[in-house]
Amino acid sequence: MNPILVYADSLSWGIVPGTRERLAFEKRWPGMMEAELHRQSFKVRVIEDCLNGRRTCVDDPSKPGRNGLIGIEQRIEVNSPLSIVIVFLGTNDFQSVHQIDARQSAKGLASIVSAIRRAPIEPGMPVPEILLVAPPKIQSVACEIAKKFEGAEQKAVGLADAVKDIADEMKCEFFDAATVTKTSNVDGVHLDAEQHRTLGHAISARVIRLLERT
Known about the structure:
This protein has helices spanning 10-13, 29-39, 72-79, 102-117, 152-155, 159-170, 193-213; strands at 2-8, 44-50, 84-88, 129-134, 173-176. By secondary structure, the chain is an alpha/beta fold. Strands 2-1-3-4-5 form a 5-stranded parallel β-sheet, with helices on both faces. β3, α4 (102-117) and β4 form a beta-alpha-beta unit. α2 packs across α7 (193-213) and α4 (102-117) runs parallel beside α6 (159-170). Residues 9-197 form the SGNH hydrolase-type esterase domain.
């Protein structure tokens, strides 16, 4: 069995754009990925750790616990042994309360990668492979989150390239979600059910590459 931890935010939690509802597991991309890997006879178990509003390494000034760097080592310890950790973060770094650009956000991911690799796992347990996923580009933000993400499109320019640079530097696998899907036309940030389906199948191909390597 190969446990896979998805460490992410609301794009993976499965919030339905324009609502506060949540897609069922089998309709979220981690569930789609698990089903596809099972279909191809890979023995995996997907563990979701997806928190709405999670950043890379900055705090939400009004909601505690949204700094992705805080507690990541304990999450690795709790769920070990792990074969793969998929880190899919960045979008919330560009909320209007932060003055962060793409390179700074990617450096936050680098800090998370380092924390994963130094987590206090038990002797003999593997340090997991890491897949960094760059989120799709933020579109014109609508609905109730418009003010929260004011200016996000401009601040996030170049994020995928910055994340790829970090992945190359730290020898992680990389996937740019924008190569297979955009964000929802409903709110410009999250993913529709069909976009979850597309992303789940695409990321499963990268996970297969990692599983075959290990």
